[in-house]
Amino acid sequence: MDGVHDMGGMDGFGKVEAEQNEPPFHAPWEGRVLAMQRAMGYAGAWHIDHSRFAQEKLPPLSYLGSSYYQRWMLAMEKNVTERGYATPQELKAGHALTAGKNLPRKLTPDVVGAGLSRSSFYRPQQGPQKFKPGDKVRTKNIHPATHTRLPRYARDKVGVVEMCHGCHMYPDSVATDQGDNPQWLYTVVFESRELWGPDADPTLKISIDAFEPYLDPA
Amino acid sequence: MADHDHDHDHEHGSELSETQLRVRALETVLTEKGYIDPAALDAIIEAYETKVGPRNGAVVVARAWANPNFKKALLEDATKAVASMGHMSRVGDHLVAVENTPKRHNMIVCTLCSCYPWEVLGLPPVWYKSAPYRSRAVKDPRGVLNDFGIDLPKDTEVRVWDSTAETRFIVLPMRPAGTEGWSEDKLADLVTRDSMIGTGLPLDPREVK
Question: Is B97 touching A (CB cutoff 8 A)?
Answer without folding.
Answer: no
